[in-house]
Amino acid sequence: METQIMNQIITKDQLLTHWQGHRTLSRRTLEKFPEKELFEFSIGGMRSYADLVKEMLAIAAPSAKGLETGKWEPLDEDKKDLKTKEDLLQAWDHATEVINGAWKNVPDEIFQKKVVAFGQYESTGYGLIAYAIENEVHHRGQGYVYLRALGIEPPFFWERE
């Protein structure tokens, strides 16, 4: 059965711009953390912001690549090689480049088709990107709570450029 795209609300490029706006804000949140607290501070048993960033990295670029190629890497949230704030920032910037490069080749129709990402998450292509954005917003919110508990003003959530 052929999938039809009807009544499109936003374009693929607008979706990418929206996503990258969130990613820019999440990067600015990461920049605000002092090195030690980035890896060690938590509240109520939640993971450190470094671990949350590693999860965001495990989802973002691999999702764009999976939609582009139809091939899915296993979900790798450990990212043991990312041991410093600078490592995380460089990985974030690399992921941004990967997303932007892959996005050009993501076929429009994949957003309406079912995909099974990471061997476990079944959704449409659009649903997968919505999940990636929602997951990031959720974890960035945790980061905001951490920053406030540390006496650090988080970035304004509406400034996504």
Automatic annotation (TrEMBL):
Where are the coiled-coil regions? Answer: none
Q: Which UniProt key words apply to this protein?
A: Metal-binding
Q: Does the keyword Metal-binding apply?
A: yes
Keyword Cell cycle set for record: no
Output the Gene Ontology terms for molecular function: metal ion binding
Query: Which InterPro entries has this protein been placed in?
Result: DinB (IPR007837), DinB/YfiT-like (IPR034660)
Q: Where does a divalent metal cation bind?
A: H139
Record-stated family: Belongs to the DinB family.
What is the name of the protein in this document? Uncharacterized damage-inducible protein DinB (Forms a four-helix bundle)
